[in-house]
């Protein structure tokens, strides 16, 4: 039996000739082995991340797919689902802003598929959650739960948002409502336990803060009563007029709590003085922050707790004892050489104080007014040239 020679030779020879071309020249549209990953990333199916802006000239295939997704001629349900899928892809890429845009566009379609709308709200809530937009995420969870009350993901997301917003009671309520329809869900049970723990802790902290504030208020009222009882006069920081005077406006009748709220150091920035305030010890003795001014050398000293039962010489002997301050190069500031004055802030008169006088007695003087809760005194070397010049032209009284 004879067979025809080389049956099918035309097709075989043609294929061989076509394949032989690859040995002579490369296929022009083939992927280059050096940049094949970049080339693959241009193909929509293999893209790791979609570009922010899609240029039809650069990404024609992707532009075509996007036009299909956003084709307004398709049924609304299809359009909304495509936008949901698009948002999911952005979400997987952690591009939460673009995901929010896609889910929002899907919701704008107002399709009749309530289950799909619930998913769009829930997914947008998740995207908002990852962006830190807790209020928006909570609003979307509420909207999803309204459409589908038993939607577990919406319930979980709502409870998580309440936790982040420190609304622990609301978080417990979300969990309780969810457990009615999902009684064995572990995530809900764990979240409910965590929310209840935080709720109890917040309530405990609120009780402590309230008790602390009550105690602070009580101590402040007791302190004000002690100051008033001693007849000590306070100057309002924002008003140079004295408090508790015999003026026609009768400042003594004003509520002292408003003035006491600002009893701290008025502009004095010494590190030792920061936060110092008048206080009353367990024995009922007042301790005042006291400022000493040395105008000759433009220096200051600050005593954070000067007991009202102490006299000035006690502190001055410590301050100018064995070791004199470095700015006193002439060593003139020794206790026996010092003069102490307080200023009448209303009349701008000076009152000289005997160094053996108790602080309380000075503060009770009818012309002594305490500014911003800090009594201040001027110290100079008696008989010095500076002292003479400083006191000249000023009306000086000797405190009795």
UniProtKB/TrEMBL annotation:
A single Pfam family it belongs to is: Wheel
Alphabetical UniProt keywords: Repeat, TPR repeat
Q: Where is the composition biased (Basic and acidic residues)?
A: 199-208, 235-246
> Has UniProt tagged this entry with the keyword Repeat?
yes
Q: What CDD domains is this protein classified in?
A: CTWD_Cns1 (cd21380)
Could you say which protein family the record assigns here?
Belongs to the TTC4 family.
Q: What is this protein called?
A: Tetratricopeptide repeat protein 4 isoform X1
* Originating organism: Chanos chanos (Milkfish)
Q: Which gene name does the record give?
A: ttc4
